[in-house]
Amino acid sequence: MLTLSQFTPHGDGKNLDTKIIQQALDEANRQQTSLTIEPGDYLTGALFVPSNSHLQFEAGARLIGSTNLADYPEIDTRVAGVEMRWPAAVLNIIDGEDVVIEGPGVIDGNGPVWWERYWGTDQKGGQRKIYDAKNLRWIVDYEVKRPREVLFYRCKNCAISDLTLMRSGFWNCQLTYCQQMEVSHLTVKENNGPSTDGIDIDSSSYVRVHNCELSCGDDCIVVKSGRDGDGLRVNQPATHIEIDHCVIHSGYGVTLGSEVSAGISDVHIHDMLFENTDCGFRMKSSADRGGVIKNVVAEHLEMHNVQFPFSWLMNWHTQYNHKTMAITPNMKSMWAVVASQIPEKLQKTVVKDIVVRDVTATVSNDYTKETRAFDLKAFPEKPMQNITFEDCHIKANEFGHLVGVEGLLFNHVYVSTQRENDQQLEKFDTR
Question: Which among 90, 135, 144, 225 has the fewest CB atoms less than 10 Å away?
């Protein structure tokens, strides 16, 4: 076993330790031994973990992400469903096999610096305001480059556990084109910035995420499979995903989408606790997108003070999803790849064969807040199909919306609603 202290890092959180940590990682790999990072504050840019590595963080060990974008070299990667050159993450595992990363240390991405560049100090300014004024909402997330914290890219048989990820500049933990992966006992917190997803499972298969606790400014645990034309070009689905025994706090819960060009299938979400989240089990896409979401089971879910327990919107956030420019010869290459569309006949995501069972969902006693038990909206020409809810008890302001849903079964579904100060309990059974 090697320790980082053997390589004499600064460990003061002020002087860069990138080269020293990278040297330690490479030497541990050469010796085929593990590397332990002892307590200390290690300021770093992008680090690259080789295959067959074991990286152990001790309690009190903290990697602090540099706020200088030059410390994150641009690499071939995928960002929000589109392949492009983009800054590397703080911790990168690329084409890796048999890598184990475990805590109980911390990765702190220095997020507020990156968030301010995106949306200013008041969340209404920054580059976002400039791009919005030009009707370029669809490209700004890619143009304003911000480091992720952990990236697994084209990896196999890897595991990450027991770390705390906080204040990420962009996504916290991303798994793209991976197989046979395990993510467990992660804590994701203090992520109040734009696009600060917790755990992103992107075009990957045989992935299990369990016993994690997350507070995010966006989707907490999310499954994706590529955006629009570029996602269809790659055409690698997300399949055989298990998400279980996690606690979800602030953010948008467990989400499928919105980038789903290659499809999502065989997902099992179970034994989950949601507290004070905006959404519980969420699915989202847009009219311009395609793909199929199918064979999903969500069961044994407990939700407290969740605004939208089931938000399944197939034409979500049109300002972000709809491109406002056609591809031209003089367009930046990155803009062109983001703007790439799928054939019109393949557009509009299909959702089918979904089972939800054993759910208890409540909201706060503040009935002035908009809450809906169900917000299921698809397209009449491509409706959701074969949707089953069983043994659900939900308390909300209103029942909600069912649009473009075909083959819907409610079996022992109870919804308690508040209308004009009179509480009503309704049972829905469509057997």
Answer: 135
